[in-house]
Recover the amino acids of this structure.
């Protein structure tokens, strides 16, 4: 049953998503904080909508009011009961709760999958917006997972692992 108060929803990726994905991935913030190719070409978007770039599961984040696609959220991998998630929201969809809503919905979705014990997001120590987003979705820092790095533009910086434990 859809939540009548929800502002955003998730849907499957379609081949017709290539246009807006291509436009969104020109954004400096998406290029700074994620592993999208740089420069981001039209062929990258076409390949992504065709096969999800190897991710385990990919959804489009859609604003309910106007059915406009505003972002992408993925389960990159499922290993030993841990769902590793990643996401970006396009410039035209930011600061209206899309990121928080998407992370919360994927958190609840993977909780229903068999043998999943927790969800994690690995976030650059310098990415304040993304850290606020997962905190709002109930994730907390897992200090036992220190180590690793994430992109911050052309640099690699320390990664912080945020985790949500089910059950
Ligand atoms: C991080 C990102 C997903 C946030 O999406 P969003 O839809 O704007 O987030 P929300 O509206 O749900 O806001 C969530 C929290 O982030 C904060 N936030 C959002 N953008 C921010 C910014 N530019 N600076 C500081 N805080 C920010 C919000 O204030 C809110 O926190 P609060 O409750 O403490 O106020 C989006 O900015 C983005 O896609 N950035 C580029 C790609 C990226 O960083 N992906 C994640 C890689 S780990």
């Amino acid at each position: 049953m859809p939540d009548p108060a929800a502002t955003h929803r998730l849907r499957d990726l379609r081949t017709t998503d290539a246009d807006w994905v291509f436009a969104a991935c020109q954004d400096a913030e998406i290029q700074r904080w994620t592993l999208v190719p740089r420069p981001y070409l039209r062929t990258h978007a076409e390949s992504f909508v065709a096969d999800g770039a190897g991710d385990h599961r990919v959804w489009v984040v859609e604003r309910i009011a106007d059915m406009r696609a505003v972002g992408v959220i993925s389960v990159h991998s499922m290993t030993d009961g841990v769902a590793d998630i990643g996401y970006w929201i396009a410039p035209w969809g930011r600061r209206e709760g899309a990121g928080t809503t998407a992370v919360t919905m994927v958190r609840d979705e993977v909780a229903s999958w068999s043998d999943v014990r927790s969800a994690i997001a690995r976030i650059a120590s310098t990415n304040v917006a993304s850290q606020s987003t997962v905190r709002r979705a109930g994730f907390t820092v897992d200090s036992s997972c220190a180590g690793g790095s994430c992109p911050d533009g052309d640099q690699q910086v320390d990664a912080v692992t945020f985790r949500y434990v089910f059950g």
About this structure: DSSP finds five helices and eight strands in the chain.
